[in-house]
Amino acid sequence: MKLIRVISAVVFASTLLSAPVYADSAKKDDIEVLLSQSRISTSSAGIETRQTAEQIKPGDVIEYRAVYHNTTARQLKGLQGTLPIPLDTALVVGSTLPAGASASLDSVQFAAMPLKRKVKLPNGKEEEQLVPVSEYRALRWNLGDLDAGKSATVQARVKVDSVGNALSNSAREVKMK
Fold first, then answer.
1. Which residues pair with 112 in a beta bridge?
2. How many whole angstroms separate alpha carbon 158 and alpha carbon 10?
3. DSSP helix/strand/coil, 89
4. Are strands 55-56 and 4-5 parallel, antiparallel or unpaired?
5. Half-sphere exposure (Cβ direction) of 92: Cα atoms closer than 13 Å
6. Half-sphere exposure of 164 (CA within 13 A, CB side)
7. Beta-bridge mates of residue 46
8. What pLDDT digit, counting tens, does each position of 109-161 carry?
């Protein structure tokens, strides 16, 4: 299968910029966000290695990390970290750290995982079904209070379905303020 050079950090970073960091006591410049991505490979012996994610192909597993750093001299209260999930990928179940992330289909409304929805069956009855993880578009963590100068990290892995609209550029780390 041909390797395809992609533009994922830029798309990922621009998506994260549209997904705000929430803190009860924070201003925009109070939080610095460092985004990174790595391709995860597993050997036949089950040993994982991280590699740059400059080139990806369908089936690859990509780990996204966002490090939120409090750049102030005071504690920030009620911090929420949001990590977008690019199109053409599916969340790897169990890969979110820290545990307890909520998920969203639209990056606006978040609920506990696994997400469920009511589906109308051909017989007219409604049934609650699990939403496929390939439809998740964002994750959010309640990180609580972040002391002055401290950082909090969130991460999740996705499996690449196709290299279409989704993944990002040659940049492996993007720093934002």
1. 102
2. 17
3. strand
4. antiparallel
5. 16
6. 7
7. none
8. 999 999 999 999 999 999 999 999 999 999 999 999 999 999 999 999 999 99
